[in-house]
Design goal:
The protein is mostly beta strands. Helix content is 15%, strand content 42%. The protein is built from six helices and 23 strands. The two termini are 24 Å apart.
Length: 518
């Protein structure tokens, strides 16, 4: 069904069209092959396949229009009113964006009629490697091999999508799962290979609540072992302005219920035969409030109330029988925390669903302060560096990422189920959920991403990482690794789903999920 929703966003038209793309391509009087429904540019905006909505545009990119508060707060602001732009520069910029979107719609209509529905976009067609004074760019040829291989494997998907769209089935599904304005969506959530067995559920997102730029989203997933997760959030990237820059906020509430959570012990040397199961519940509510102190740089303060509860599992072997009691810090206790701190995030990626330029850098400090008789306090520090490097064409990208986190004990200890994890979510994609835990973790990810079809990207990845007891123990010995590949479905600036196969030190894992890894 997710594939149907993805495929439905190729608008079609039954009349002659004239198109003019950014690269000057034009076409006139293309004969009509088939009478099909017409969709507007507004309807082409696309759904959100991610259970959490795609991040809102940077505050600096928010269309401010002629907001009196903004003008008042910015004495040197020039609205740019000219003969060509009588309503101001920002209105003209918005009109140009709409015109560009309409041209994209017409371009899709043309390729529909040519039978090029899922074919490769014209702006990223491969070119023959050019000669240079150093000879042929031979590196490009081996990098194109996975492109053709992935196309061959996924050809049935492309053909099926073409047929479903031509018959109008995909368009009917889109009408069912969204409103007329295409601002509200209900979509399926699917998960496989992440530690709780197969799971499914529903997500919903509203991108313009109250016509005030508020985004609301919610999701619920249940697995075959009855593990369940639910989440609800409300956000706004520009509540009000100060000196021409906006304040943003997000409120989040979540519930994570696990009957068969796995614990293997602490450290990179924990063995697979030491695995035991426990049950847990976590309820979290709170949010963050931030200000864009510089272009693309957001400083935010966060505060969350957390309720943690751990218990025996319904599945054997039980964790209390596989791990010594002193290692199970705070087991069978109900703990209350206040998590407060600050985050500094710089994000200049050129897309949320399929970026090939820019990056994201984030530093976080979190203080987990116990409430009541809870003396399991600690601090947590996180650093994430993510960079996308475009290769010879759009959507061909090298992705480099590293993530480090350390916990500083300030109380009686850190609950064993709150220790940092190195697993499929880190991601170290060939290892199960909860595989390695300790007070420190470091992971590096390397990916080559490439376009396969109009709405599909392929990927080849390598993940390496390990956990640490203390900062002084940091080393690059005994690293765990994962290698693999897969494909990702996207629609415009919305991520839909990913399918991956990963191999590592402890075997192979197949992953399927309707959210991104990073």
């Amino acid at each position: 069904m997710v594939l149907l929703i993805c495929s439905a966003f190729n608008p079609v038209h039954a009349e002659e069209v004239e198109i003019q793309s950014d690269e000057g391509y034009s076409s006139k009087n293309i004969p009509v092959v088939q009478k099909v429904p017409e969709y507007s540019a507004a309807q082409f905006m696309g759904p959100a396949g991610d259970p959490t909505p795609a991040p809102a545009p940077s505050v600096s990119e928010t269309v401010l229009g002629e907001d009196p508060e903004f003008i008042k707060a910015t004495p040197d602001y020039d609205p740019g009113i000219t003969e060509e732009c009588p309503h101001g520069r920002r209105r003209c910029d918005m009109d140009k964006s709409i015109d560009n979107l309409e041209n994209q719609v017409k371009d899709f209509q043309t390729r529909y009629k040519k039978g090029e529905l899922w074919t490769y976009p014209k702006d990223i067609q491969e070119e023959k490697p050019k000669k240079t004074k150093y000879g042929t760019k031979a590196l490009k040829y081996p990098l194109l091999l996975p492109v053709y291989l992935t196309r061959a494997i996924t050809m049935p998907i492309a053909l099926a999508a073409d047929q479903l769209i031509r018959t109008g089935a995909a368009a009917k599904i889109v009408d069912i799962v969204s409103n007329d304005a295409r601002t509200f969506w209900v979509y399926p959530l699917i998960e496989l290979g992440f530690g709780s067995g197969f799971g499914g559920g529903l997500g919903m997102t509203h991108y313009n609540m109250f016509n005030s730029n508020y985004t609301m989203s919610g999701s619920y997933v249940i697995h075959i072992n009855m593990d369940q997760q639910a989440k609800y959030s409300v956000s706004n990237p520009a509540i009000f302005y100060l000196k021409g820059r906006a304040f943003a906020f997000e409120f989040v509430g979540s519930w994570d219920h696990r009957n068969e959570a796995a614990y293997y012990g602490r450290g990179i040397g924990s063995a697979t035969n030491s695995k035991g199961y426990y049950g847990s519940d976590e309820i979290e509510a709170g949010g963050w409030f931030g200000y864009e102190v510089y272009k693309k740089l957001l400083l935010s303060l966060h505060a969350y109330f957390i309720l943690d509860d751990s218990r025996s599992s319904s599945k054997n072997p039980l964790v209390q029988n596989t791990v010594t009691a002193p290692s199970l810090v705070a087991f069978r206790n109900s703990l209350y925390y206040i998590d407060f701190g600050l985050d500094l995030t710089h994000d200049n990626r050129n897309s949320q669903a399929s970026p090939d330029k820019g990056g994201k850098q984030r530093f976080s400090f979190k203080r987990f302060q116990g409430l009541g008789s809870n003396n399991y306090d600690y601090n947590q520090f996180e650093l994430e560096l993510l960079q996308y490097i475009r290769l010879w064409k759009p959507r061909y990208a090298l992705v480099l990422r590293t993530f480090w986190a350390f916990q500083q004990r300030t109380g009686a200890g850190i609950p064993f189920y709150r220790l940092l994890r190195l697993d499929v979510d880190s991601p170290l994609r060939s290892f199960p959920w909860g595989r390695f835990r300790d007070r420190g973790v470091g992971v590096a990810n390397f990916e080559f991403r490439y376009p396969v079809w109009e709405y599909m990207d392929g990927q080849i990845f390598v993940d390496v990482g390990r956990v640490y007891r203390n900062i002084k123990d940091v080393s690059f010995k005994h690293l765990k690794y994962s290698v693999g590949g897969g494909f990702r479905l996207i629609s415009g600036n919305y991520f839909l789903l990913r399918f991956q196969v990963a191999y590592g030190n402890e075997g192979t894992r197949v992953l399927f999920k309707t959210s991104q890894e990073f």
